[in-house]
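pasting for the record
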Amino acid sequence: MRIDVEAVDEDEPGPAWLGAFERHAEAYLRWYATPGGGPRPTFLECETAITRYLPEWLSTWKQLCELVGGGDLEARFLSLYRPPPYVHGCSQAVLARPKPFLVRNYDYAPQLWDAMLLRSSWNGKKVLAVTDCWVGVLDGVNEAGLAISLSFGGSPEVGVGFGAPLVLRVALETCQNAHEAARLFRRVPIHMAYNIVMIDRTGDFFTAFTAPHRPTIVRRTPASTNHQDRIAWPRHAYATATLERERHLYARLATPHLEPDALVDAFLMPPLRSIHYDRGFGTLYTAAYRPTEGELVLHWPGNSWRHTLDQCDVGTRTIEFPDPPGAMVSP
């Protein structure tokens, strides 16, 4: 399977973002309308939730809704409020010294990935991020020197709240540092368990552990995989080797004078790099962020792609992944 990864540079939501949304809107809206995790909210419920928990995002959400045509289902989808559950892998870690650094693997099904990197300035702050659901963020950095990424927290439980990628987007659009981002994640309900790591240009870092039906816990934790204090979903934990990856990560972080490039190399190799594309959680990319430089480098074995907040390398890269079972393969 070949995936074209697209890099887009567009300050305000416009033709490039809208074109990407429209190419995949049918599939995303069909997914959003599924009953998993309970019925989808009404437009009024979405608007009320954003007004209550994310008032700083309200005008941008309305702008995006207008851009896509003002449809009811589209607006509810773009709120990412009470979305269906979704499950993936992922490993992530930060280094505070000698310079702040964040590296992560995103493990998911290739055919379900946005495959878009967007350099934008929707609310007056430059943001460079890998998108999810077109409005959300899997990982990114802003011009204040704040970098953030997420990983699934290992529980199938679903509650009332927003999809984590939207809250990451709002954090990058509005927060100056890790402390501000941590406060945001504490006050906004997120509908599933996630481990969200953040680091700023000063080297300050936290991980927010979200879960339905309990307050978000924030700790000064430098690495996470796909569980929290305990294994809540043994089958998923075993399939994704979350404990093995966590042990490997902490062993690497304990290496004296560990350099960022050496940590990236570790993420490009097993056990951190997953090849289980047939199960829906192969590694789609390794992202390395240097917040003080506003830099993102996307890595694949033998291939890398550098971008900065000041110079996004607009274009596409074609990445080849193993075909899922039963896929039609062209001769």
